[in-house]
Specification:
single chain; globular
């Protein structure tokens, strides 16, 4: 029997959502909590889809790929590693994992 959720995708989604909540608690950033919870929920939903069909990477890929681009852009603009550089790095790694799992 297959797992109900992809563990790495679940961890990634919870990390993103938790980071958004942390950004809100720390600095009162409403965009952080909205984006974090939105992309975290998309990643968790994608993890459920991956568990049901390992070739169905598209929702997870959308969430991680979009965050990779957005946060890398923010990192290049500001030069700050925390949080945009870290989120870009983690999201890029997860995006690469999805693509390698799908196409190898």
């Amino acid at each position: 029997m297959a797992a109900a959720v992809d563990a790495m995708g679940l961890a990634y989604g919870l990390l993103i959502a938790g980071g958004g909540v942390f950004g809100y608690v720390r600095s009162g950033s409403v965009p952080s909590v909205v984006a974090g919870c939105t992309f975290g929920a998309l990643a968790v939903a994608g993890a459920v889809q991956l568990a049901q069909d390992p070739r169905n990477i598209w929702l997870s890929l959308f969430a991680s790929g979009t965050l990779s681009v957005m946060m890398a852009s923010r990192y290049w603009r500001t030069g700050k590693f925390m949080p945009p550089g870290l989120v870009a790095l983690v999201s890029s790694a997860y995006t690469l994992r999805l693509l390698l799992a799908r196409y190898t």
